[in-house]
Target: Amidase
Amino acid sequence: MLSVCQILEDIQAGRKTAAEAISQSRALIDARDGDIGAFLELADADATPGDGPLAGIAVGVKDIFDTYDMATRYGSPVFDGHRPPVDAAIVAMLRAAGASVIGKTVTTEFAFMHPAGTVNPRNRAHTPGGSSSGSAAAVAAGMVPAAIGSQTGGSVIRPAAYCGVTGYKPSFRLFPTVGMKTFSWSMDTVGLFAAKVVDAGRVASLLSGRDLEADPLREAPRIGLYRTSIWDQASPAMQNAIDSVAQSAADAGAHIVEIEEPDALSRGRDIHTIVQNFEAAMALGDEHRRHAAKLSDVLREALDDGYSTRPQSYDNGRRIARQARKAATALFNDIDVLLTPSAPDAAPVGLTSTGSSIFNRLWTLTGNPCVNVAGRVDPAGMPLGIQIVGRFGRDKLALQAARWLEETL
Amino acid sequence: MLSVCQILEDIQAGRKTAAEAISQSRALIDARDGDIGAFLELADADATPGDGPLAGIAVGVKDIFDTYDMATRYGSPVFDGHRPPVDAAIVAMLRAAGASVIGKTVTTEFAFMHPAGTVNPRNRAHTPGGSSSGSAAAVAAGMVPAAIGSQTGGSVIRPAAYCGVTGYKPSFRLFPTVGMKTFSWSMDTVGLFAAKVVDAGRVASLLSGRDLEADPLREAPRIGLYRTSIWDQASPAMQNAIDSVAQSAADAGAHIVEIEEPDALSRGRDIHTIVQNFEAAMALGDEHRRHAAKLSDVLREALDDGYSTRPQSYDNGRRIARQARKAATALFNDIDVLLTPSAPDAAPVGLTSTGSSIFNRLWTLTGNPCVNVAGRVDPAGMPLGIQIVGRFGRDKLALQAARWLEETL
Model:
């Protein structure tokens, strides 16, 4: 895979130019994407690299974000031929920081569940996960050093886990969602994909103007082993991976405590779908009203579910979400981060499903920062993702602990 | 002015058809808007009225919301000729409820401060206020019974006050902002204009599926007289109006207590601009990067201010906003609503400024529901708006108290 930090170092040291780094990604896409299907459209090849701290970094952008220079279809035939007049905020931020938005990556329909055509670069018979399928695959296949995705259920952490790359879902609203097609406004979150945790931290820092570098920790972290109340939905391979990672971390000096899931958090996980579908039904109101025939069955069912949800149920869901947020913050009184599965298992075989977000959706609802740490594999050699969850607003510590774990594994 | 409730009653009773009600608004627009300039574009005249509880209600929609069938310019030449592929969520909700989206109303540039051409129907030498200038004027001039606006500072309550109509800014996120051009995502709020408070409550109920009817109160409300820490910025006429309204309310049986502004709330008012400009700088990143020459000076200055704001100052502003929200909720322990000015004075003369949002921005930051109650006028006969502020989520009570006050005055 291509490392953001390495490329920036090479450019700084004069070993390559920003233009060469961008050309290299373009050549890799030309060579490899025919087999993967991560990209929908590439930017003009003659575009010169930008000016700024991310100059030389080619970034794939999930096609759920508006780009003025490339078609933006949100994964739906409703938007065939759509060309937004302006960039999404995160895209403008990338360009202002000097990054090259090299192409649009495949998303499932409106970043929901209906799968698209991208395959998993680790094994093409497997799904790359969704909904940020193309962004995860583009990084995993070594075509670009970074990619932008989004998560409303598990759409960053899960594909990162399935493809064996770093996925970083920041604290809610660290990055703006303006110009991103809305599915659920109280949960839609912009996220990043990169090779290693330090690479994700570097991009996040340079984009946000905040210190989010995954600097080495001075002491081993205090880790809460968080098996969750749905531990039985994790495969034996995943259960083993989590337990053995906890053991390795303890061996390396981490303080490990087992943390039972509070009721407020299991309730939060349970009402995610109510909040999501109610908001999606409003957000995609015109798509449903005028273009229902162009929507997938799975989406139409979710929207119908949203329309039949009473506002009182939604309001109650929002109250439960607020309580879950408070309970999530309280978990971190004596620990730095939680350790929990990124997904129930490795990537399923086939492209008819992008897998389950059951291990992710709670943290999207609460807005806690999450990092997928790659490194473990199942007996068949497919990646098993480990999820590090941080306290809301403590993204830097979450990234640091994730890096510590990545280097420990 | 046209009353939503009256029109719906007339249709129900068979005194007119929905189609006739829509035609009537169209004829009124044709006759009157040449002098007012509230509308930018009208919908196809042959469109049949919708089917639903709002059938027969012609609604003007601020041109900050996407409409698939009319140009959407957000008040900026950057978007000349822009035609969004789908409706904003609130527009789709209007149509789904049977309302006729009869035309797009004038907004200031990106709903910020640069004035547009609409005049005040009460006196054409005065500003109608902004940024929802056209929506307030369209209702005030009796052309439509309802209009949609938005508020990030004071853009619903202030123009309603200046034009002498009911303005209702609901609790934050009661109505979705999807498909509305973002200025500040943590404050942008969809609001309504109508003739009387009951009309606004009726539209809000039928659109949201919640009971927001401004039913008569069984007992006179408990009102907090909230002069605020910026009372000296209200004109003598406004100060007299507030004091005499409080006296009239007390005479009519209301329990009136004077409430001093807590520090947490004056601090909230002070940091509104920091939060707003930081978010606007990201939300309008591409507009600033590629189209700076097409932006007004006042907007460019606000965006430059946003770019020079450190993320730490913004984060601190968001913390102060959270504290202000808590403090705002605590105000309502022993009262139903607050009584406070809607604006410093009546509408200023001239069209070079849309007036000040100083009496509104705190409540946009905290997300409390606000209602402008019309009825009082200054010595020159221009409307002086009275603002009723309710507890977050208690919109019905705020509307009920506003109706009580409206009928008392």
